[in-house]
Specification:
It contains 18 helices and six strands. By secondary structure, it is mostly helical. The protein folds into three domains: 98 residues, Fumarase C, Chain B, domain 1; 248 residues, Fumarase/aspartase (Central domain) (Fumarase C, Chain A, domain 2, Up-down Bundle), CATH 1.20.200; 59 residues, Fumarase/aspartase (C-terminal domain) (Ribonucleotide Reductase Protein R1, domain 1, Orthogonal Bundle). The strands form three sheets. A two-stranded antiparallel ribbon has the order 1-2.
Amino acid sequence: MWSGRFRQPLDPGFERWQRSFPFDQRLLLEEIAASQAHAGALKAAGILSEDEHEKLLRALEELKSTGRDFLNDEEAEDVHHFVEKQLQRTLGEVALKLHAGRSRNEQIATDLRLFVRAACDELRAKLLELAKALSVRARQAGAAAMPSYTHLQRAEPVLVAHWLLAYAEMFLRDAERLQDCRKRLNRCPLGSGAIAGATLKLDREPVARALGFEAPTANSMDATSDRDFAVEFAQVLSILAVHLSRWAEEFILFSTLEYGFVRLPESYSTGSSAMPQKQNPDALELIRGKAGRVISAATQLLITLKGLPLAYNKDMQETQEPVFTVADTAARMLEVATGFMKAVEFNLPRMEQAASSGYMNAMAAATYLANKGVPFRRAHEFVGRAVRLGMEKGCELEAIPLGELREISDAFGEDFASNVTLEKTLDCHDVVGGTARAQVAAALDAMDARLKTLEAEDGNA
């Protein structure tokens, strides 16, 4: 495509090494769509006749279904070269008119935006499916309680539903970030040329609309060198990968005999080649491990771009594979996480028993004293002394004789034990976002309503 200036052929090893077709062939459908839109602009500009335009469109449509049969092409430098070769094979010289007024610099910028935009939509749908699975399991858990943890030490009891909805909130934020990323990338680079803009008087607005973009890009130098959208996409997926890794880690912990809160589904587990009794959480461990792949790909993009002057540089060829990596890895992680979430079993009695022991009602006890007029710092001290007394006696707070509690503070009354039950401990957190049973019931209804709205928005997009 560029050999007219050169007398010597490329070194064979370098020629093979510099080809991007082995990986950017993935953008075939995006390249065809962009070429169809460009053909329309060339027709409007009088470069293509009606007949030539129709022939090109038909050939491009045919290439959608048959092009993948030729994807082992050993001569194509990149996906753009491949499409041009296939069109020339069927149309002859007419095919060579298609490159008028455009450059591969703008073509790859367009193709990659189309790919990332579609990936945002696909991943957002998968995120909503995972959030829905979490919401369903949260509702199924009913009023069952479990311990919550800070510093990996038991803290306060919460509803199992409250715990699961915490992850649903994380994943909905990821969906929002993908939507934001999609909005910023939805500008069309076609018409930017190699760097300074197309050399033909092309109407860029219809081209942008034909490809579903909101508008053309505003600056040709920026359009051909911009990979912000790729970086943002990878960084959004890095946050998602961290969320999935944290989710996986907690389920790994909770599946151990030491916790016993969940039972691993066999369909998402493996065994040991040496130890017959083992059931290993491989699906969860791979999710946790593959988060590193996503994060490193995002870092690779930043490192590739950090020293590049305007506008296009061959280094940018290295921005494609990390984008494919993060999109593919995140999609598979979400699919496995959703399947696991639907199949996992909760040991609710074990969780509730754990939530009822270990002085997890100490905060409720301090609140009880505060409601009696004891300054909270004093209440904190008194309950701490009561906990130490309970540890010495080998009993929970509510089982300590009232007379011994009153030796600590006369604010302890006959109603103390009835105010630090598991139900009362849960319900004292009666604020929006808290784990009180009424608040979690409202949060479940709100989550279901949000998911329905988001799914409807995606359906109408």
